[in-house]
Amino acid sequence: MSRTTDILLTALAPAIWGSTYLVTTETLPAGYPITLAALRALPAGLLLLALTRCLPPRTWLGRVFLLGSLNFALFWVLLFVAAYRLPGGVAATLGALQAMMVILMARGWLGTPIRTGAVVFAAAGVLGVALLLIGPDAALDPVGIAAGLGGAASMAAGTVLSRKWQPPVSALGFTAWQLSAGGLILLPLALIVEPALPPLTMTNLAGLTWLGLIGAAVTYALWFRGVARIEPGAVSMLGMMSPVTAVLLGWVVLDQSLSLLQGIGAAIVLGSVYGGQRANRLGAAAVARPTGLPRSRRAF
To answer: Which residue numbers delimit the EamA domain (predicted)?
Structure first.
């Protein structure tokens, strides 16, 4: 399968994640972030385990629970804290810093060179998200900022370590392990911290089904598949598709306004995503090319 196909399939994941805000606010009861995160992760993980019939070996349990915590439990909890305490634009902009964090972490844990072009496009993407989402009334809450940065760092670490630790199973099986582990971590926390959920309506169940089956099981399988095939820096840039989708859905579904400045921000984000793919691909090709051989004579 071509690299372009791999990128498009991987980009589907953050594009669909952009629907999370709309689905959460329009279909789910408010005030139960940890419980809803557990209900999003655990049933989807158990379903995938039943489909793949593949349990993690004992030697992998520590890694699986660490990844489940970084990619789901810790990330989702911090994401909700940031969303509650910060304007959505500020929270999303802090989340966009994940691409820069991945570049730095990949250098330390994978030995991936830091490429100037990749850093420039990652910074441009953060600027684009800020223009897309931050309004003039944005307030800065210290706890919210810490949660936003912590959530970005958690997902960045999970992305890099998911690339570093590749088990001999399919992306679907790897997703099942992590979702189940993340759900098992979140479930007791939800029972201790939050009150019981009210009776769920059909609308609530439809929202949870979308977030669990599509927004977790399917999308994270695509995401971890991409993590295994594409450079970490290139994968992390694709995450910036999420705020673009969120704004477009708000415009189309909720009849929210879309200003010229937001349009410029969206264009910058899309341009930075494209440029980031090229910068990472060319950098990886340069590393793979044997020293002393011209481009046209490199070995395949």
So the answer is: 7-133, 144-274
